[in-house]
Design goal:
Strand order of the largest sheet: 1-2-3-4-5-6
Largest sheet: 6 strands, parallel
Shape: globular
CATH superfamily: NADP-dependent oxidoreductase domain
Strand content: 5-15%
Number of helices: 10
Mean pLDDT: 91
Structural class: alpha/beta
Length: 310
């Protein structure tokens, strides 16, 4: 996402493709994009498609549907998971990605105006047609997951999960594990806070979501910085970075948990990938929870943008 939206100016020409190709060279095989990330232009899917064209058979590509992107002024605010729209978006995504099938097709957000059974049924038809391999949900709650799974097996659920955001642990993770559904944490580095490289909200441009995120606002910001500083000391004791501590803590939750950190930087990419080799002891995991017992200070989204799980 960050290569084309939400974090200020996108990647420089060729930078995004080079970073994606470098990820594959380092052993990464799962790549996540979405119709939304191109702001209605398809640019993010096209970027992923170009970068992975030569290794398409070696990777898993996931993309998402679920928004009405027809009005540039309202992009990201209007949901649309009508079956006819799902089919239209899927055809566009196949074209943008330059592929004949999508490995994982997610519903980006639960649409309260369309029964999840209709959504699952539409994706089931796309799977039967060979255009999609697996069905995924994003930011869905237990009831929606169960209802969707009864129509078309859900392979993966993608929802925000990190040291700074742990709401899924209470009700969502138990359900996906009961049903045998994989879990994909997005924003596993707290939108950059858990990299240890951050600035106050006022220091970010207006097109960077951190400029308005509650977690970067005065009051919350200082308390979150203090937590990261404690995490940095803990990471240094393990001879790793804060980012590696954050990613390794998720990987320690089980083999069914596969975080998807985003970055434009090849140096940061290599740091993230190396977290897969980090093994954290139970004492370290317990200490992380002591430092951040309830997640970050400040909501992850404004109320109007908060995903509905039902």
């Amino acid at each position: 996402m960050g290569m084309t939206m939400a974090y200020g100016a996108g990647s420089a020409d060729g930078e995004g493709e080079a970073t994606i190709r470098r990820a594959h060279a380092l052993g990464v095989t799962f790549f996540d994009t979405a119709e939304l990330y191109g702001m209605g232009t398809g640019s993010n899917e096209q970027l992923v498609g170009r970068a992975l064209k030569e290794v398409r058979d070696e990777v898993v590509i996931a993309t998402k549907f679920g928004f009405d992107l027809s009005d540039p002024a309202k992009i990201g605010t209007i949901l649309d998971s009508r079956p006819e729209h799902i089919r239209e978006v899927t055809e566009n995504s196949l074209r943008h990605l330059g592929t004949d099938h999508i490995d994982v097709l997610y519903q980006h957000r639960v649409d309260p105006d369309v029964a999840i059974e209709e959504v699952a049924g539409a994706v089931k038809e796309l799977i039967a047609a060979g255009k999609v391999r697996f069905f995924g949900l994003s930011e869905a709650g237990p009831d929606v997951i169960r209802r969707a799974h009864a129509v078309q097996p859900v392979s993966v659920l993608q929802t925000e999960y990190s040291i700074f955001e742990r709401a899924v642990e209470a009700d969502v993770l138990p359900v996906v594990r009961e049903l045998g559904i994989g879990f994909v944490p997005y924003s596993p580095l707290g939108r950059g806070f858990l990299t240890g490289d951050f600035r106050p909200a006022a220091d970010y441009p207006a097109d960077d979501m951190r400029s308005w995120s509650e977690q970067w606002q005065p009051g919350n910001y200082e308390r979150n910085v203090a937590a990261v500083q404690e995490l940095r000391v803990l990471a240094q004791e393990q001879d790793i970075t804060v980012a590696q501590l954050a990613l390794a803590s998720l990987l320690a939750q089980g083999e069914d948990v596969v975080p998807i950190p985003g970055t434009r930087s090849q140096a940061r990419l290599a740091e993230n990938v190396a977290a897969a080799d980090v093994v954290l002891g139970q004492d370290t995991l317990a200490r992380i929870r002591e430092i951040v017992p309830h997640g970050a200070y400040g909501s992850r989204y404004p109320e109007a943008m908060m995903p509905s799980w039902s």
